[in-house]
Amino acid sequence: xxxxxxxxxxxxxxxxxxxxxxxxxxxxxxxxxxxxxxxxxxxxxxxxxxxxxxxxxxxxxxxxxxxxxxxxxxxxxxxxxxxxxxxxxxxxxxxxxxxxxxxxxxxxxxxxxxxxxxxxxxxxxxxxxxxxxxxxxxxxxxxxxxxxxxxxxxxxxxxxxxxxxxxxxxxxxxxxxxxxxxxxxxxxxxxxxxx
Length: 195
Hints:
By secondary structure, the chain is mainly alpha-helical. The chain has helices at 3-12, 20-47, 50-76, 103-117, 122-141, 147-175. The chain contains six helices and no strands.
């Protein structure tokens, strides 16, 4: 663990002198905000326009890839959480499992980065970005992650979104030559409308 990581943790981790309102906000950001973001995702998938549904489906895939990335990194680098090392105060119950990278942060940043990369969801992207930052702060404030865990979660989520969007763009570029017109012997023109 780097000295800077430990110093940042001690600065951000809520201590005995921290006001109860700060801890309550951190708990809400860590426990309730991800549920609200999930509700937004599901609601948008149900009632959104086709473009919004596509953007949210890509965000969901980005979050799934982030989950896989976090699981892989936790197996490769089983770093303990602060409480397992007797450092700081842990304000919420948490299992004693690897904390690098932060799953909450990776999922939130995958959603925010994916929505930012999608055109029709710019306002949701701004809200999701602010929520992702709040979640990242809350995980350190509540003592369940080191700042390096959160930073690795940010990178994992953002890279996952980038990968999904890159694959989606490559797939779209490769799909038009394989489309055919009504006559199977004639390949469809790429500028023609396809449904």
